Amino acid sequence: MNQTILIVDDEESIRQTLGGILTDEGFHVITAGSGEEALRLLEEEPPNLVVLDIWLPGMDGIEVLKTIKVLHPNLQVVMMSGHGTIETAVKATKLGAFDFIEKPLSLEKVILVVNHAMELVRLEEENLLLRQKVVSHEYELTGNSAPIQDLKEMIGIVAPTNAWILIMGENGTGKELVARSVHRQSRRVQKPFVEVNCAAIPEDLIESELFGHEKGAFTGATAMKRGKFDLANEGTIFLDEVADMSLKAQAKVLRILQEKTFERVGGNRLISTDVRVLAATNKDLEKEMEEGRFRQDLYYRLNVIPLRIPPLRDRREDIPLLVNRFLSDFALKEGEAEKKVTDEVMASLMRHNWPGNVRELKNIIERLVIMTPGGVISKCDISPLFGEGGKEILPHEPAISGDSFRAAKQDFERQYIIRKLREFDGNISRTAEAIGLERSNLHKKIRGYGLEMKNGAGEGAGHFEKV
Fold first, then answer.
1. How far apart are alpha carbons 179 and 189 in whole angstroms?
2. What is the DSSP code string of 218-267?
3. Is omega for the bond preceding 104 within 30 degrees of 0, making it cis?
4. Which of 81, 111, 412, 428 has a CB 3.0–4.6 Å from the CB of 54, allowing a cystine?
5. Could you read off the pLDDT tens digit of each residue along the chain, which spans 467 residues?
């Protein structure tokens, strides 16, 4: 599809002349005679570039530029003016305009500026794709087991099509991972991937969230908002936990899936959308339909291609690959040396039943990385989490991230040191040797964590007295 340029000028002759020249250059051109019309067109057919006159009836070009940069901050805008001054050009540039062209227009200069702006658009798109590729490993399915190999093969077959897909699996199996993998291998990969957590949207906000709303549509709607289906146009929309939507919300989603058009809340204009729909659930939808909690017509609309993700207990041979992957990822994230696990630890991890699946395994590995001060995670490090038979004896908790990470790490380290000191009856030398720290470093940590000590005689003097 050709790149689209929106020309905004109140003089029809300029719109026609400029539009003809840019069409001859291979661009798809749309035009508007006012700022208000331009902003409407931006929502209907988002362009790659706007060529905008400053002097417009009603809303002038500077105001239009300000609005564009609020609603579409990455959209490039070239300004035109028949009464241009340096002051106006500087103001437009400060507001985010790519360039400023004076009238009467030099068509050669227009073409040059437009091509430069389009080159910037192309570079920005390439940079976005490169950034996506850099982090794409986060969305790769890890494993060589037969169930995962079958799933990867199926994804490779269906991803290049436009078929809608229903992804089924227990909590924590990686349904979003599969959805992103499908999108990455599809023909829509350069278009948006928009995720909707259906379980998290209140019923009274579902229409606004999915379809958007016009300014003033309800109390608090201070500006026009594009909905998820609008944002996903020409790309992929992922309806996660689709079975958790109310029947009323299901009916509204079914309507847009059937008609491929919608109206924003408070609006009366039909907006067309072209999206590929991926849906996911951890529930048995056939049972949900029997009990009247899920619409049968929506089920058959979504379930064109079913993909089922196996639970981790059915592909235990993938656990070592997943463990090594998570250890590598956490080391990269924190800028620290990658830790290893002993064979005993790996055996315990492979014996565990993993009711929380891959998500639970990831959380456990992160917790072990935080709690283990040395470079090797051994049996004594995992014993608070697992018994000899691999059965978890502590409740699993969500992974710690963000600002709480360092505080949590320090708390875990403090508790670990206390446990080890008690294990060795407060002997500093033996404790330091057991946890792989220099004796002086252990002393510093003990003082830093406010643990009280008393001096004693003999090797290893300086015993743990009180926490």
1. 12
2. STT--S-EE-HHHHTTTSEEEEETGGGS-HHHHHHHHHHHHHSEE--BT-
3. yes
4. 81
5. 458 899 999 999 999 999 999 999 989 899 999 999 999 888 776 788 999 999 898 899 999 999 999 888 889 999 998 776 677 778 888 899 999 888 888 888 899 999 999 888 877 766 655 555 444 445 578 999 999 999 999 999 999 999 999 999 999 999 999 999 999 999 999 888 999 988 878 777 888 888 888 878 887 777 778 889 988 989 999 999 999 988 888 888 898 888 888 888 888 878 888 999 999 999 999 999 999 999 999 999 999 999 999 999 999 999 999 999 999 988 888 888 999 999 999 998 998 889 999 999 999 999 899 888 889 999 888 876 654 444 443 333 344 444 445 666 677 778 778 878 887 888 888 888 777 777 877 888 888 777 765 544 333 444 454 43
Kindly report the length of the chain: 467
DSSP conformation class of 465: E
Q: Kindly give, in sequence order, each residue whose CB lies less than 8 Å from that of residue 64, ignoring residues fewer than 6 positions away.
A: 8, 35, 38, 39, 52, 56
* Residue of 209, 290, 221, 219 lying closest to 256 (CA atoms): 209
How is residue 309 annotated by DSSP?
P
Q: What is d(CA 212, CA 267) in angstroms, rounded to the nearest whole number?
A: 9
For 273, counting Cβ atoms within 10 Å of its Cβ (0-12 exposed, 13-18 middle, 19+ buried), the class is buried
The three-state secondary structure class of 347 is: helix
- Alpha helices, H only, 261-403: 285-290, 296-302, 319-334, 343-351, 357-371, 379-382
Q: List the one residue out of 347, 359, 244 whose CA is nearest residue 311.
A: 359
CA 273 – CA 234 distance, rounded (Å): 7
On whether the pTM is more than 0.85, the answer is no
Nearest alpha-carbon partner for 183 in 98, 315, 278: 278
Query: Per-residue DSSP letters for 73-102?
Result: TT-EEEEEETT--HHHHHHHHHTT-SEEEE
For 157, what's the count of Cα atoms within 13 Å in the CB-facing half-sphere? Answer: 10
Residue 438 φ then ψ, to 5°: -65, 145
Residue 392 identity (one-letter amino acid): E
The whole-angstrom distance between residue 89's C-alpha and the CA centroid of its chain comes to 38
Single-letter residue type at 286: E
